[in-house]
Amino acid sequence: MSISKKLLNNYGLRNTAFRKKLLQLFQNSDSSLTVEYIKDKIGRNNDKVTIYRALNTFEKSGLIHQVPDRNNLSRYALCNVECNPSNHIHHHAHFICDYCDNTLCIEEIDFPKIKKIKGFKFKKIELIIQGSCPKCL
Ligand SMILES: [Zn+2]
Ligand SMILES: [Zn+2]
Ligand SMILES: [Zn+2]
Question: The pTM is what?
Answer without folding.
Answer: 0.85
